[in-house]
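User: Can you model how flavin-adenine dinucleotide sits in this protein?
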Amino acid sequence: MVVRDAPVVSHVEHSEHARRPRRVQVVETLDVTPRIRRVRLAGDLHDLPVAGPTDHAKLFFPPAPGEEPPEPHFSARGLVAPPAGAPRPYREYTLRRLDPAAGTVDVDLVRHGGGLAGTWAEDPRGALWLYGPRSSAVVAPRDWYLLGGDETALPALARWIDQLPTVPVHVVVEVADAAEEAYLGDLPEHVTVDRRHRDGAAPGTTTLLDDAVAAFVAPAGEGFAWMGAEAGALRPVRRRLRALLPTAAVDLDGYWRRGVAGTGLG
Ligand SMILES: Cc1cc2nc3c(=O)[nH]c(=O)nc-3n(C[C@H](O)[C@H](O)[C@H](O)COP(=O)(O)OP(=O)(O)OC[C@H]3O[C@@H](n4cnc5c(N)ncnc54)[C@H](O)[C@@H]3O)c2cc1C
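Assistant: Here's the modeled complex, given as structure tokens:
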């Protein structure tokens, strides 16, 4: 299932990358926050094409931590999907930081307590297969940016903040509580953040992102908005942003769907 229901934004250029599956090995883990675990993966990664803020790849997870991950198989039409009804062995993850010289890439996994990847994140070890990224999105320069998302988008948000020029950047984030705020760390002056806490509510059940967007006062000039979060939480945000920005300046990605396994951009 393809969750991405945003229009293809016209001024975001996607440079396509040649892809090959790469077997990677966990070499280090770090708890960045109580809910986000960084896993450093090593392998044949010197030419992994990581450029844009939202670059992501499919990670193929083993059925249980430490077991052998299923190797991706290909036909002339591309990656062979599992048979109808069979669960997908892969999930999409943002490539947070590549070190081509060391041949490592970091991915930051939300520990949400279930799922193939979420279970693996509780005991991350052994090998995975990595396939991607398919492309890199490069956004034409704008006068301001509105970015946002839940914990799953924090790696992409950090990359956006690293890459954008010093124009006004406003970030709205929905996180479990204050402990998760540490992820973005100290930010430059042109970046403002509206942090909203779920305070015990389940992820994907609140209107916190929409509330934060409602409180946003757009600066003068041409803007661009990007967000990644639970698909249902983005629905009201999409409606609200359509009143604020041209469709082509809004890119919202359903990163997961509450109650559904293995969703997210296909
Ligand atoms: C382009 C892209 C980039 C992404 N980057 C990242 C990233 O860098 N880090 C990251 O952690 N995630 C990221 N995600 C989201 C991640 O792919 C999904 O959360 C995925 O569903 C996790 O797989 P799973 O096997 O743990 O759970 P699944 O088997 O897919 O789902 C099992 C259950 O858990 C629920 N669930 C899934 N994710 C969450 C969550 N985060 N919180 C609460 N419940 C959840 C589902 O609704 C379902 O009920 C990204 C998604 C996309 C599309």
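A couple of observations from the model: The helical segments are 116-120, 154-163, 208-214, 231-242. The first strand starts at residue 12 and ends at 16.
User: Helpful, thanks.
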